[in-house]
Amino acid sequence: MLTLHTADHSPETAVLIDGATIVAVAPYEELTTAAPEARLRRWPGILTPGLLNPYAPELLESTYHPDPREAAELGTAPITGERARDLFRTDPTRLGASARRGVQRMLAHGTVAVAGQLNSRAAADAVRRAGLAVGQRPPRLPGPPSLSPRP
Hints:
The structure is a single chain. The radius of gyration is 19 Å and the shape is elongated. The strands form two sheets. Strands 3-2-1-4 form a four-stranded mixed sheet, covered by helices on one side. It has two domains: 42 residues, no CATH class; 85 residues, no CATH class. A hairpin with a 2-residue loop joins strand 2 and strand 3. The chain has six helices and seven strands, in the order E-E-E-H-E-E-H-H-H-H-E-H-E.
């Protein structure tokens, strides 16, 4: 079944899908003319290409993503460096929950794939369970670790 996806904040762009296959990415009007029988799905936000985030180890194993219930004590921003290492050292179970929250943050930034060698089962499981693809880490990284790195 053909489905035409478009978004409120990028109405000029659309994606035509047939089952699990991307058939075309083109202007909305062009695709509605080419496939008038396609069902239409409108989404809030924008349509953008998916992001390969090459910082999986840094963001999922070396960064602590606080639970909202810890906001009063730890804040809501990701914690890095020695402070993150101390949190993981004092309570190793925090790694799995933090990795899951980190994956959620990555998904919210458009991540569809990650790269980098994950050494903990907790982080690897979080990536696998979220359905993220695992790709090759580029030879040159675009800058410091970020949820939405840009070249």
